[in-house]
Amino acid sequence: MEMGSLGRITSALGLWIIITLLLFGNTVESSAHGPTRSAQAEEQTYLHSTGLKIAITASIQVHSKTVFSCYTYSMKKLIMAFWEIFPRDRIPCIMAYRSDKNETWGKNCFDERITWESRPDQNLALQIDPVNIEHDGYYNCTIVTPDGNFQSVHLLNVLVPPEITLSTGGNGTTMCEASAGKPAAQLSWVPEGYCFSMNETHGNRTVTVKSICHWNGLNETKVTCSIFHLTGNKSLSIELLPHYPKQSTALYLYFCLCVLLPIGVILIWKVCLRNSGSRFIPDVKMKEEEYYVNYMKNANHKNESKNRL
């Protein structure tokens, strides 16, 4: 019994020394630009070397609240407990509680949204409120007791709903876009057209998915884009009219306005000129005839006057 107790005490002291080095040493390199590839490699090495197994995987939507529980144990026998937080895009953080002094402290923990859910001497659960995309990562709780050390490991996957837009570019072409979603959304069309898709991954691991489809020659008037995502599914519909079905009518009207209308104006103008010319000539002839008649009347009147004399 004495040897067993001594072994447990030695194990607890050894873990205490490790925790002290982690908290007050220089084992973590910080950077103004966030974690480097070496930091991410150290995270993977740590998980592998300690043999941690993820007990709970939580998929939480951004801007919501989540709570991670620690290993259940009698608080009267607790020596200490600490949370190791490994966000994917930030430096690791350690939050610790020491029961004999009833005190807490932290290392590289600057996010006010990550806190103890309540008093650590009553509940060792960790709370994130609200969850943001940079909280994606591993959360490991370790408690040190006279009976040994116990761990609870959580993997947090932060879900981001995509912003959905549906637009038409005319000529039977339509684009459906699910932007900045995590994970990437899945898109489908009803009815099916001639489609191609493209994905763009952003620095915060969100993904924008675009699907562009053509329905030329398929005589469709309405199409529907369906978006499938872990945060919820959605469908949007759009009318292709008047872009594609009335394309031939629009071309015909354009031809009439640009070609036939000028020709018609020219023909009408020529007809008007002809009509105005035909009315002008008879008027001149009538004036000449009236002048001749009046002249002959005057001449006859003069001859009659001479003969009387």
Q: Please, could you describe this protein's structure?
A:
This protein is α+β, with helices and mostly antiparallel strands and 309 residues long. Among the domains are: 2-27 and 53-158, Immunoglobulin-like; 163-246, Immunoglobulins (Immunoglobulin-like), CATH 2.60.40.10. The protein has helices at residues 2-24, 37-50, 247-308; strands at residues 56-61, 66-68, 80-87, 93-98, 103-107, 114-116, 126-128, 137-145, 148-159, 163-170, 173-181, 186-190, 194-201, 207-214, 222-228, 234-239. It has a six-stranded mixed beta sheet, covered by helices on one side. A hairpin with a 5-residue loop joins strand 13 (194-201) and strand 14 (207-214). 19% of the residues are buried. Residues 1-40 and 243-248 have low confidence and may be disordered.
Q: What secondary-structure arrangement, pairings included, does this model have?
A:
Layout: H1 2-24, H2 37-50, E1 56-61, E2 66-68, E3 80-87, E4 93-98, E5 103-107, E6 114-116, E7 126-128, E8 137-145, E9 148-159, E10 163-170, E11 173-181, E12 186-190, E13 194-201, E14 207-214, E15 222-228, E16 234-239, H3 247-308
Parallel strand pairs: 1-9
Antiparallel strand pairs: 2-7, 3-4, 3-8, 4-5, 6-7, 8-9, 10-11, 11-14, 12-15, 13-14, 15-16
